[in-house]
Amino acid sequence: MLLTVTAKILGAITSLYMFLCAFRVLMTWTPGLNAGKVGTFLAAAVDPYLALFSRIKLFRTKRFDFSPIAALAVLSVANNLFQTLALSGRITVGFFLSLIIGALWSAVSFVLSFAIACALVRIVVYLARWNSLSPIWVVLDAILNPILYHINKVIYRNKAVDYLQGLITGFLVLVLFRAGGGALLRLLGSLLLSLPF
User: Fold this and answer.
1) Which SS3 state, helix, strand or coil, does residue 91 take?
2) CA-based nearest residue to 2, from 60, 85, 99
């Protein structure tokens, strides 16, 4: 009984903290929202936690910082763990492994979905013949080009392909990888959850 109540309280705390972290990340995208006592309190409450992940170079590229996704994924795992403990009173190894794999896939699938959306926008812009030198398209190209380079290098074996063909190929591979990876992870998760220990 005490374990269940404690797990419920910890689950509620991690849910609230996840919300605060997500709100803080949104605030950093709009600098005007940082003003005031609420912004100062929020920064003091969540910035130390978010800073733990921003120090890890694996989560950062030259232009983007994916460390908030990792920070929220860890909180999500903890939250699911507490909620399951509150409902069932026990945690199995299979559930714990399924939870960790699910959280990792959640972060990867977010990045894949973002890349898919960028590729789709870039395809539309290219086909519509809009100004491809606009700063926003340059930023999208900076995100997409390293991914597309690796995909096209594997598929076309270093043969030259035009930009649109490379974009469409990269888009389709990302969509297939996202869908196939999701299906595989759901299957693996259900197998892990069925473990008796």
Assistant:
1) coil
2) 85
Query: pTM value?
Result: 0.66
Contact of 103 with 81, CB cutoff 8 Å: no
131-189: pLDDT as tens digits: 767 777 777 787 788 888 888 888 888 788 888 888 899 999 999 999 999 899 889 88
Q: Are residues 59 and 112 located together in one domain of the fold?
A: no
Residue keyed to tokens 């491809």: 132
Q: Which domain holds residue 33?
A: 1-91
The strand pairing partners of 65, in sequence order, are: 60
Residue 1 has pLDDT above 80, yes or no: no
Residues 54 and 14 in one domain: yes
Give the orientation angle of helix 135-156 with respect to helix 163-193, to 10 degrees: 70
Structure tokens at 182: 């999701």
- In this structure, are 79 and 112 located in the same domain? no
